[in-house]
Structure formats: structure tokens, C-alpha cells
Amino acid sequence: MADAREALTAGVLDGVPHAFLTGKGGDGEPDPQRLLPGGALVLVRQVHSALAATADAPFDPRPEADAVVTATPGLVLGIVTADCAPVLLADTRAGVVAAAHAGWRGAHHGVLEATVRRMEALGATRAGIVAAIGPTIARDSYEVGWDFVEQFEERHERFFLRADTPGKWHFDLPAYVRWRLESMRLAAVEDLGLDTYADPLRFHSYRRATHRGEPTEGRQYSLIGLPA
């Protein structure tokens, strides 16, 4: 069966081979050739960490990390998500790209900053990096309890909204991720503004599947390539 997953793109990454693939219309790892002819897919073993890896070839075995960075032409970097924020980054002048998996834990502990530092080590500059946030669980769909809220500082209060349910709040993950990216003074940050939880026809959502008692294995891929 042909891979019919829809490929969403971001304006800030115009001219850079990239795609936020929807979760429906195909199974398994995507074909990197669809994004970059001759490209080789690079994946890591995601563990909700703040670890970023640098790749100059596909990994074997895959290291534990939640972001991958490269300056090697011909590679297609990929991460998988199902509510967490997929973030694709590029500095086209330096020839450096990156893909990051930013769940609340990884974002809170610095995975985005670690990704940018890895990019800088390869020659990128913050003034040259653009970043796009793909489909992510939105604030109104993300209800949390006090045990979650208390892990944040008072300065993060703006990312929480009291829910109608007593003792519950809504957490704005995409806004939090965007704030962390913008705090690094990157050239531009774009949020596609798509809620994985609220769109079951296009996206897998771990939280939605849990609430419905459905299988939770579904994921969507986000990819970015560096042409040869």
C-alpha cells in the first residue's frame, strides 16, 4: 500500500526539504526518498530527555536522544510524536538542520537549548536559525493536575489556565515551546497551530487514545533533510 500520509509544511522552512506527516494514510517508517531523493533516514531512540545527538550517517544502533542535528548532506532527520511538540530547525546559510521531540518534560529540561547548542557547534548561528512547531496537543485539550503544575516556576504561570474541573488546569505546551525557542533569539519561530487531540482524522494522540480506551501506539513522523 502506498504511503498516503499528508505532508504539512511551514513557511519559515520554505526551500528546506521538510514535512510534518499526518498520522493516517500509512504505516511504519516513511520513505526518505519522498522528501529528499537519495536521502537516508536518521532516527534516534526517544526517551523524553534533554539529549541531542549529532549525526553524520544513520545510527546503528540508535542512541537515546530526543533531538538530532546534522551538517551532512543527504541525511533526512526524523522524530516521532503523538501529542508532544515536533520542532524542525534550520540554518540554511550554515547548512545545518535539526529535528527535536519536545514533550513537556524534554522542553522543561532543555532539549531545545541542547539542540541549538549542537547546531552552533556545527557552524549555525542563533540569528540564522529558524524553527517550526508542528502538530501538538493544544491548551484546551491538555488538562493537568497540581502534581504537574508544581514542577514549573511562578514565571511559567501564563502557560496555565484553570479548568472547569476543580483542581485541574490546562497547559499550553505549544506556547511554552515557542517561548523557549524565542528566548534564544532565533531568527524566526512558526507554530502551525494544529491540535493533535482534536483532529482524529489526521493525527494520532496518545492522550485521546488513552481517554477512549484505544491502542496508544500510533505516532506521526516529522522530517527535515539537507540536500547534497
UniProtKB/TrEMBL annotation:
<keyword id="KW-0862">Zinc</keyword>
<comment type="similarity">
    <text>Belongs to the purine nucleoside phosphorylase YfiH/LACC1 family.</text>
</comment>
<keyword id="KW-0378">Hydrolase</keyword>
<dbReference type="InterPro" id="IPR011324">
    <property type="entry name" value="Cytotoxic_necrot_fac-like_cat"/>
</dbReference>
<dbReference type="GO" id="GO:0005507">
    <property type="term" value="F:copper ion binding"/>
</dbReference>
<dbReference type="GO" id="GO:0016787">
    <property type="term" value="F:hydrolase activity"/>
</dbReference>
<dbReference type="GO" id="GO:0017061">
    <property type="term" value="F:S-methyl-5-thioadenosine phosphorylase activity"/>
</dbReference>
<dbReference type="InterPro" id="IPR038371">
    <property type="entry name" value="Cu_polyphenol_OxRdtase_sf"/>
</dbReference>
<protein>
    <recommendedName>
        <fullName>Purine nucleoside phosphorylase</fullName>
    </recommendedName>
</protein>
<keyword id="KW-0808">Transferase</keyword>
<dbReference type="Pfam" id="PF02578">
    <property type="entry name" value="Cu-oxidase_4"/>
</dbReference>
<dbReference type="InterPro" id="IPR003730">
    <property type="entry name" value="Cu_polyphenol_OxRdtase"/>
</dbReference>
<keyword id="KW-0479">Metal-binding</keyword>
